Amino acid sequence: SQTIHQWPATLVQPVGSPLSLECTVEGTSNPNLYWYRQAAGRGLQLLFYSVGIGQISSEVPQNLSASRPQDRQFILSSKKLLLSDSGFYLCAWTYPGHRLYTFGSGTRLTVV
Amino acid sequence: AQTVTQSQPEMSVQEAETVTLSCTYDTSESDYYLFWYKQPPSRQMILVIRQEAYKQQNATENRFSVNFQKAAKSFSLKISDSQLGDAAMYFCANNAGNMLTFGGGTRLMVKP
Fold first, then answer.
1. Which residue of A lies nearest to B107 if distances are taken between CA atoms?
2. Residue B106 contacts residue B11 (beta carbons within 8 Å)
3. What integer pLDDT is reported at residue B74 of this predicted model?
4. Which of A46, B25, B54, B65 has its CA 20 to 30 A from that of B76?
């Protein structure tokens, strides 16, 4: 069966520090991968998605970047965090052409 | 571009009663799917129900059903016999191509 892992669960980082959030999927190959951000009490905003290794589409210009170094690994990064980067970050995957999305358990990021 | 709008930030229902959550969407795609997701306090995203746009019949999953009005681009969720465990944030979402776009969410409170 397929599973999605996302870590860390909670992170507190100072302004100006770097960020690296990791998401991995097991039990499948060539998944579509997604990073979403959810501000407090708000909906989910799509940040990045990837349909293959090294292929990244950005939906929102911002202080963040994403990379897909391996087929089932998706990384969200920042060189210098801003206060506005605080939020809940969710990773998701789906089979290409399928319409069932599975979400990770999320990372709560607080920038102080 | 796709948009999803949930006009009810909060809804309240008495236990065992029925409640309807509203959602409207806009898309230029002809092939798309619509979803309702539940997000409990754990913030895990749980798929409640899914509707294929090409199907005229409204989807049903136990106590959950939808009213899909394609011409009006409306996709409401009806929860029958509401239970305390139904209390959560509910998100409407639209998938076309590789994109899954969410509405802002409706917080559902269930009164005992």
1. A41
2. yes
3. 97
4. A46
pLDDT of A76 over the 70 cut: yes
| Nearest of A57, A75, A58 to residue A67 by alpha carbon | A75
CB nearest to A32's CB, from B50, B91, B98: B98
For chain B, residues with pLDDT lower than 50 are none
End-to-end CA distance of chain B: 41
Answer yes or no: do A101 and B102 touch at CB < 8 A. no
Give the pLDDT of residue A61: 65
Partners of residue B102 in chain A, C-beta under 8 Å:
36, 43-45
Closest-CA distance, A43 to chain B, in angstroms, reads 4
Task: Judge: A99–B101 Cβ closer than 8 Å, yes or no.
Answer: no
Bridge partners of B102? B93
**Phi, psi (rounded to 5 degrees) for B84:** -60, -35
DSSP letters for B43-84: ---EEEEEEETT--SPPEETTEEEEEETTTTEEEEEE-S--G
A100 vs B45: CB contact, 8 Å cut-off?
no
3-state secondary structure of A31: coil
Option in B33, B45, B105 nearest A99 (CB): B33
φ, ψ of residue B85 to 5 degrees: the values are -70, -10
Query: Alpha carbon of A107 to those of A2, A24, A70, B56, B67: distances in Å?
Result: 20, 13, 21, 38, 34
Nearest CA in chain A to B97: A97
